[in-house]
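=== Structure Prediction Worksheet ===
Name of assembly: unnamed complex
Input type: mixed (protein and possibly other molecules)
Chain count: two
Listed entries:
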Amino acid sequence: MTDLCDRTATELSAGLASGELSAVDLTESCLSRIDAVEDRVKAFLTLTPEVARERAVELDVHRATGAPQSAVAGIPLALKDVLTTRGIRTTCGSRILESYVPPYDCTPWTRLSGEGAVLLGKTNCDEFAMGSSNENSAFGPVHNPWDLDAVPGGSSGGSAAAVAAGEVVWALGTDTGGSVRQPAALCGVVGLKPTYGLVSRYGLIAFASSLDTVGTFTRSVPDAAVLLGAIAGRDPRDATSLDAPPVASDLDRGIAGLRVGVLDGTFGEGVAQGVRDAVRAALDRLDALGAEVGEVSLPHADYALSAYYLIAPSEASSNLARYDGVRYGFRVEGGADSMEMMARTRGQGFGAEVKRRIMLGTYALSAGYYEAYYGQAQKVRTLIIRDYERAFEECDVLVSPTSPTTAFKIGERADDPMAMYLSDVFTIPANLAGVPAISLPCGLDPAGLPVGLQFTGPVLGEQVLFRAAETLERDLGLDLRPPLLSGV
Amino acid sequence: MSEWETVIGLECHVELDTRTKMFCGCPNEFGAEPNTHVCPVCLGHPGSLPVPNEEAIRRIVKIGLALGSEIAPRSLFHRKNYFYPDMPKNYQISQFDLPICVGGHLEVELPDGTTSRVGITRVHMEEDTGKTTHGSASGRIHDADSALIDYNRAGVPLVECVSEPDMRSPEEAAAYLRELRATLEALDVSDVRMEEGSLRCDANISVRPSGSDALGTKVEIKNMNSIRSLERALHFERERQVAALEAGESIVQETRHWDEDAGATKSMRSKEEAFDYRYFPEPDIPPLAPASGWIEEIRGTLPELPRARRARYESDMGLRPEVARVLVANRASTDLFERTVAIGAEPKAVANWVTQDLAGLLNEAGTDARDSRVAPEHVADLIRLVADGTISGAGAKQVLEEVLETGDEVEMIVDRRSLRQVSDEGALGEIVDMVIAEQPEAVEKLRAGKQELIGFLVGQVMKSSGGSANPKLARELLLERLS
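=== Predicted Assembly ===
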């Protein structure tokens, strides 16, 4: 017996359409779940129950007129707090934007809101999306619903935990190096990072512009396809956005004959035994379902992490320059002149990891070092793009673990940035190449923590990802209810 | 000066007068209430993204084509990173090693009638910054206790045009800037008002021993807001550098500020900071790859450029080169000239009125030619009324002055000021007879052969008529009666 808030959006949307349930019921179900667990999970930085209730009432009135409803109408949603919302504060998990209230909505929310989505709040995240554990939030960590002493992953940890705990039905996050897929894996939900440009970045507060994507957290693969469909497509406000390809209707075609390439390193040294076992079992199922499972390698993937940690901080050092206390946000008064005011504001407003990356990036872009660092990293990026192109000549999809480990304890890696950076070793290459990837739960490790499996597809190949992932999801038929919820 | 050669290169910034800003939809308009033409994009709000203005790109391509640049098949925007409060993102979107327009040149006509060819290094696209006003009793930055920032200008499309160090004198630099301004004006891409900052110019200048190939240490001069200031600043700086070198000192590579009141360049900072702008490709904007068909379409819209126009005025209309040069130097004069000729007025007469009397009056009043009330009909009427003797040349100038003030019709002003010449033989005859009667001595001497006294007598007739007599007719009548 599950509550409304634990069901998939696809089921709920059908229930709303048939009149079996109302948007108000659904919203109240989520709000009572939030009441029950939020003080332990701490997924949200800002809750918007009034906005949500008002919207739900409107939707029910509207639906009573017999007007057709979108598949996202009435479904409670959360947005990672790096996505701007007009009139609702948007902090990026940072002191420097603690009181910042944007004057405009991000495009993904504009589109969802236009279709009747119900916003329940803004979720916690690592400061400016920099981190893999959510511990870098200026407002405290998020707790993993599967183990309250463990991290939910990051940077979109709040969105992942909120969906896992039934506080919302689905959520948006952002993925620059794995920030949707890794927390989805650690929290036992489905996380999609679309092709770079498929979802507008307008209103996504930039971390690394050439890598940033808006992604989805859902309870099922079909839900991911629906939510992506609602937010994808070209936006005149984002010059890097792309037209959405037409949606094919082959989601349940099965995967017989699908060429699945298992990425080199899937069973490598740094991968935890529990993760290996669950992934191996999933690969056996793919084989049993008729897929042609073989091995494939991305020869330059070993350099991906290094390239990423030059490109992302370089762009971040420039993107975050605007937080200076002059026009909005936090400001440290006093100081001899405006330059000193700006320096003090940044010194006190940013946390340690953000400062570390700003310094790294500033250094990498400096005269005399640019070619050796940023220039070289861009060349690696080109090689990785070619690696993928070659791999997709042989395979339809690639598969690997999403994260080398399951959820780790809060504090465990906090003082070891290198260990933390390695959390993203499987997710980063897709960001460098701009290709889409999806993480779905494929089992639990011996400690009872979810393991994520990642499928990667070619540019604009979301459809094949959904097909592979949904087939496996249905076959595995996992019941993923975090222990936290057994008492509610 | 002959022992030293001056080497000058100019960097000009041109604000395009597109309807909207470079990367957002805000109005691009000078003089509005502070911070009223702003949005999340041009204020650099978190999450906002720049989208290039196609019309601005079209215009820079037009400029490039007019200057004979190569239009790059692929060019990139870069970010130029530095902190400054009037720059909303603390980086400027600009171009670096892949500008839109590469190379080119401008044929410049020098005051002595010779021409020189000044190379263009590049023309690139960028965005303007906001404007800071420092609040202090003295108005000086160091004493300021507050700073007010207006972001209306932030994100206005800005074209930077960099010349080669091809100019050898302040006069040549001024001629180059005049020609560039006239070209931009003819292209209809900017209102090129130096006093409002829509055309700005920085100069690099060095001197070297005549005959040397090596460049001397250059100094950059900023803050010249007219062509005259540019010329003065370059003169000053040339003298300063020559004097320093002749005294055995060396030139410090630095940026100097032109102080208009002091008539001198001044070092801007004691400790010159070496900026590292950390340029890198702007990830928010895909590379620009203008289609060749689009470029050709733009080429087809190029108007007649100043140089061709001067040649046409000289060969087809018989204007003298210096008249043609003045006429073509600004578009308002050219337009007034063309339109006046189009309604039938004689070209040389129009050119004289436009480049001399009118230009003089505008200059005196400090009025921009574009803001003048003088219409083609005014000029044509003046020429006609002077030619048919209705008004005198002096009277016509008075009329023109009043046209500038009121914009009223010429004949209306002529009547209001009673400037119509007495050309009626009967009426004028009476005055002539009176003058002859009053000046027996002069009349006597004239009759005795002192011909120059006719001028004196005409003057007396003019005086007695209150200035309204037609002097030509008065002279004829006097000679007739006294011969």
